[in-house]
Automatic annotation (TrEMBL), chain A:
<feature type="transmembrane region" description="Helical">
    <location>
        <begin position="239"/>
        <end position="259"/>
    </location>
</feature>
<keyword id="KW-1133">Transmembrane helix</keyword>
<feature type="transmembrane region" description="Helical">
    <location>
        <begin position="191"/>
        <end position="219"/>
    </location>
</feature>
<feature type="transmembrane region" description="Helical">
    <location>
        <begin position="114"/>
        <end position="131"/>
    </location>
</feature>
<protein>
    <submittedName>
        <fullName>HTTM domain-containing protein</fullName>
    </submittedName>
</protein>
<feature type="transmembrane region" description="Helical">
    <location>
        <begin position="65"/>
        <end position="82"/>
    </location>
</feature>
<feature type="transmembrane region" description="Helical">
    <location>
        <begin position="143"/>
        <end position="162"/>
    </location>
</feature>
<keyword id="KW-0472">Membrane</keyword>
<feature type="transmembrane region" description="Helical">
    <location>
        <begin position="88"/>
        <end position="107"/>
    </location>
</feature>
Automatic annotation (TrEMBL), chain B:
<keyword id="KW-1133">Transmembrane helix</keyword>
<protein>
    <submittedName>
        <fullName>Uncharacterized protein</fullName>
    </submittedName>
</protein>
<feature type="region of interest" description="Disordered">
    <location>
        <begin position="1"/>
        <end position="28"/>
    </location>
</feature>
<feature type="transmembrane region" description="Helical">
    <location>
        <begin position="39"/>
        <end position="59"/>
    </location>
</feature>
<feature type="compositionally biased region" description="Polar residues">
    <location>
        <begin position="18"/>
        <end position="27"/>
    </location>
</feature>
<keyword id="KW-0472">Membrane</keyword>
<keyword id="KW-0812">Transmembrane</keyword>
Length: 311, 175
């Protein structure tokens, strides 16, 4: 179990995910949830502080508080981005993002699309130095990515648990999906909502997929990537039909992917398209092979070998 | 050959190289921060997992972020009409505005979760109007705010295409 929890991954993998994460925080502030900046204008009568806010005696969101949190979070996220996740910036990002979520969720509606992303923000400061292109295996990075993977799968599995708790087995044959399609859909969603077999079939499918999601940890590498691809396609479909994207969760889902290979993949694609005609400079090749001491195909524990990358 | 990262993890490489020695040194140096850090990580993982599990089984939204993941977890019978609420306002120029998180800072679901309060105390709709004016100070005054429920008819878990609107609460600006 310990070996599995701390299975080493290349530092470059967590470096890539780190860049994606802090870039998303900035995107979140300006685009994805930009409306949150105006929360301070909502009368405090409508504020319903959550347990954590009450326990910590956090102040009610006011215009000035929300703006302070916004700008401090922006500065911290940019700082974390340019300093390769230095803890001086990375920890405040986690704390301020949590505060931003509390402001978001304290008016009567709590979402669960951010749990894995919040875990990701919490573990990134613990990874230590990790540079892009550095393929040195790291158990600290391995633990960080593993707990994010666990959080991602928990989001699926425990939401099916919640469905059984609040809706019971009847959830699968109820009308929750038709309701969601009517309220948030439009166009093709409105058409699909009129077909009972699609609605009930989709509900049964969602329940099965969520209950079976932990199986992703047991799958061999290729099948695991296929499962992660299915997770992404499920959210793409949800976004297309009812405009629910789970975008922060999708960033956390990247913990399953060999993101350190992104540059090589892009290079290979460019070659295939014929846009890259000149060979790679010799110096760059030397730098790559000296830095890339070991290539770990994936985070699979001690049963899988580490392959020396002498290509 | 064998690359020993620490006393727990053994990784095998295909062929011996000088680089593997570098790997060993690097991995060993990573654990200079000691066994305690690893124990802390395991403990934090277990505590968070246990709390999340307890929150899922017995908790509520109030326990965020370790409460139950209950988006779309409600039970809706196969023939139960689907409510689709909206907050509509009419301003001083007679224009109708739908109030939402983008112009008033409140999401539809947040209004819906407090629906009974708005029905019991329609004057609370003025708070949404206030939020709208705070965000849009140059906009014409909202004279009337209505919480409207659209009921979509559902049969056999699917929509029939029929619906009706029902005003649940109305607030009119005192003249």
């Amino acid at each position: 179990m310990m070996t599995w929890l701390f299975a080493p991954v290349p530092k470059a993998r967590v470096a890539a995910l780190r860049t994606l994460t802090y870039a998303f925080v900035i995107f979140d502030l300006f685009v994805y949830d930009s409306w949150i900046r105006d929360r301070g204008a909502v009368p405090s009568t409508l504020y319903q502080p959550l347990l954590i806010a009450r326990t910590l005696h956090l102040p009610e969101p006011s215009n000035s508080l929300v703006h302070w949190v916004f700008w401090l979070l922006l500065i911290a996220a940019v700082g974390a981005l340019v300093t390769r996740g230095h803890p001086v910036f990375a920890w405040p990002v986690f704390v301020l993002y949590l505060e931003m979520l509390l402001v978001r969720m304290s008016y009567g509606k709590v979402d669960h699309d951010r749990f894995a992303f919040l875990v990701l923000l919490a573990v990134l400061p613990t990874v230590g130095a990790a540079r892009h292109g550095d393929r040195t295996p790291s158990q600290r990075a391995g633990w960080a990515l593993r707990v994010v993977q666990l959080a991602v799968v928990a989001t699926y599995f425990l939401s099916s648990w919640a469905k059984l708790r609040y809706g019971g087995p009847g959830w699968a044959t109820g009308s929750v999906l038709a309701r969601a399609f009517l309220r948030k859909g439009g166009g093709i969603a409105d058409l699909l909502a009129t077909v009972p077999v699609i609605m009930i079939g989709s509900q049964i499918g969602i329940m099965c997929f969520e209950l079976l999601s932990p199986v992703v940890f047991l799958l061999p590498r290729r099948w695991r990537y296929a499962a992660v691809g299915f997770f992404y396609s499920f959210h793409a479909m949800s976004f297309w039909l009812i405009s629910i994207s789970f975008a922060p969760h999708l960033v956390a889902l990247g913990a399953f992917l060999p993101l350190e290979n992104t540059r090589q993949l892009a290079r290979r694609l460019r070659r295939r398209r014929g846009t890259e005609t000149s060979p790679e400079p010799a110096g760059q090749v030397a730098a790559t092979t000296s830095a890339a001491v070991v290539r770990i195909p994936d985070q699979v524990g001690s049963r899988s070998g580490v392959v020396v990358d002498d290509s | 050959m064998t690359v020993r990262l620490n006393n727990r993890t053994r990784l095998d490489s295909e062929q011996p190289t000088d680089e593997s020695a570098t790997t060993t040194a690097s991995a060993k140096s990573e654990w200079r921060w000691g066994r305690a850090s690893r124990v802390i990580r395991v403990a934090v993982t277990l505590v968070v997992a246990a709390t999340l599990l307890a929150g899922t089984m017995w908790g509520s939204d109030d326990d965020f972020p370790l409460g139950p993941f209950r988006m779309f977890a409600g039970v809706n019978a196969p023939n139960e009409p689907a409510p689709d609420p909206r907050v509509e306002a009419v301003d001083a120029t007679g224009v109708t505005v739908v109030l939402n998180e983008h112009n008033a800072g409140l999401r539809r679901a947040e209004v819906e979760d407090n629906e009974n309060t708005y029905v019991a105390h329609p004057e609370r709709l003025s708070l949404i109007a206030d939020a709208y004016h705070a965000r849009n100070p140059k906009a014409p005054l909202l004279d009337r705010v209505t919480l409207i429920q659209r009921w979509h008819e559902i049969r056999h878990s699917a929509a029939t295409g029929h619906w009706r609107d029902e005003p649940l609460a109305v607030w009119v600006r005192p003249s």
